[in-house]
Structure prediction request, 394 residues.
Amino acid sequence: MTDDDPADEAGAEALRTELRAWLGAHLTPEVREAIRYRQEGTSHVVPFEALREWNATLFDGGWAAPSWPAMFGGRDAGILEQLAFNEEMAAAGAPGPVNAIGVANIAPAILTYGTPEQQERFLRPMLRGEEIWSQGMSEPEAGSDLASLRCRGVLDGDDIVVDGQKTWNSNGDRADWCQLYVRTDPDVPKHQGITCLLVDMTLPGIEVRPIRTMAGDAGFAEVFFDSVRVPRTALLGELHGGWHVATRTLSNERAGVAVMYLHLRKKLDRLLEDAAAHGRPGPVARQALAARYAEVRILELVCKRMLGAMVAGRMPGAEGSIVKLAWASADQALTATAVDLLGRPAIDGLESAGTWSWDLLGSRSLTIAGGTTEVNKNIIGERVLGLPKEPKPA
Ligand SMILES: Cc1cc2nc3c(=O)[nH]c(=O)nc-3n(C[C@H](O)[C@H](O)[C@H](O)COP(=O)(O)OP(=O)(O)OC[C@H]3O[C@@H](n4cnc5c(N)ncnc54)[C@H](O)[C@@H]3O)c2cc1C
Prediction:
């Protein structure tokens, strides 16, 4: 069956109806209250344990990740069904799994490169939110240029002994497991000497130091490894084959791009409501809101163009960089406009509207997360516009 098969469209409609009914029964006012992000004094509180419980409810209902294979808790959903799922979840304001990075990035690597034992051991607890995962790629001297990573892994009998440091580990302060990239061969070209490991974060020699962000939360950590003996069974893929794991894993969640415009559309609706209730009316405010509306709509169209290509069976390439840029700049402009128009109540946190100041501060990270703006501009320049390659340092 192809993705634009009428049967697939019927399947998407059936999924939509079933999910709407399920959300009606399970996303009760009590659950909504429990999973609401709140402001307490100057702290922004993420109700993590309540979100984890909601994650388990989603999993038990078969709704944690429909794109996953059914044998690991998904539904083998096609792209139109995935899109219907994302639209219904966004419309209901229903959060997804707590292991966002695990489900979107680590699980596809385990599905592609993992042994049957690793798949059996890790995937279900990850999707149900029973075990929290982080991704250990970036280091103080290796970010955009990930292949320069230095954290060492030295083979010693049945173990790989890890020494070094990782940073900007999302979820690192809570993680039970880490998908860790280490240098196992320093004597070959840098892309060829990297290995991926699935590391138990309770092993002796691991120290996690949470990093508090300017938005007030501790969603990141630095992680230090001091002669940590990781068993060889933790290898994901081949020894020295980590670059393939990092770059050649295709996600089965192909409609994930829709989440960007769906979430931003919700934020825009929230802004329009708040501006009507608390904002300063006038032509300048109207012009700013119209500009934000146009940006969100453009993002939606760019995302839909990418989705359309995938439905037609084409693999998106550098368009992903255009979507990333459009998303980051639209979100940053939207949250800045909210604080401009709403003034003090936006900073203090509006009970009706959530906390725009947290959104504003959080949105700054979008210039960096998932590929920086400058790196994405280079990709667009070279691969979309066909401009000459940027000169590389000798
Ligand atoms: C919200 C968030 C979540 C993150 N989560 C994780 C995580 O879970 N795990 C993890 O390992 N890391 C994570 N990171 C780290 C992220 O991957 C890195 O911050 C990112 O790769 C950039 O690396 P860097 O910070 O070292 O900056 P650098 O790569 O040092 O870049 C510094 C500046 O130089 C520019 N630059 C770099 N190279 C070029 C070039 N070739 N051409 C032009 N300009 C260039 C960049 O655009 C940037 O402005 C996260 C970051 C954020 C913001």
